[in-house]
Amino acid sequence: QRKSAKLPPAYEKKFRANKKAWAFFQSQPPWYQRTATYRVISAKQEPTREKRLAQLIKDSAAGLSIKELRRTETKK
Fold it and tell me: Alpha carbon of 16 to those of 7, 10, 32, 44, 72: distances in Å?
């Protein structure tokens, strides 16, 4: 399921409405797109899916990966 994760049409329409966010998302590697999409659609409750989609759009518009997939700096 994770490999074939795809946003439902209504969610994709919301995402595409924010052109900057959609462009950033499309520029990301396939593994990121699949993982971020799966994170949205795997939520059991609709409010959680909506919240995760909103966060994905917000982060993408800002040119950032979602928090769970951001690389953290290691202190040396």
Answer: 11, 10, 17, 23, 28
Statement: residue 71 has pLDDT above 90: no
Q: How far apart are CA 56 and CA 24, in angstroms?
A: 11
CA distance 38 to 20: 21
Alpha-helix residue ranges (DSSP H) falling in the chain: 9-17, 19-27, 30-41, 46-61
Counted domains in the chain: 1
Query: Quick one: average pLDDT of 28-52?
Result: 93
Q: Which domain holds residue 11?
A: 2-63
